[in-house]
Amino acid sequence: MSTSTYTVVGMTCSHCAMSVTEEITAIPGVENVDVDLASGQVTVSSGSDLDRSQVQEAVEEAGYQLAAS
């Protein structure tokens, strides 16, 4: 299993976190998404390595941005 952590900019409430979680969970291979709203950190666990662009696209679909890495 692969685990990656990203910082999402603009999440301010539980609804924000839920939207981001739903979009990232829809990526094939994603097994778990854990959002820490206070820090903006999103930890994604998947059965294989995810491409950052897949996560970025999902986060943008939810209406937010990934912080530059």
From TrEMBL:
UniProt KW keywords: Metal-binding
Keyword Metal-binding in record: yes
Pfam families xref list: HMA
Segments traversing the membrane: none
Residue ranges annotated for the HMA domain, each copy included: 2-67
Stored InterPro entries: Heavy-metal-associated_CS (IPR017969), HMA_dom (IPR006121), HMA_dom_sf (IPR036163)
SUPFAM superfamilies named in the record: HMA, heavy metal-associated domain
Superkingdom per UniProt: Bacteria
PROSITE patterns reported in the protein's UniProt record: HMA_1, HMA_2
Record flagged with keyword NADP: no
Protein name per the record: Heavy-metal-associated domain-containing protein
UniProt source species: Nocardioides taihuensis
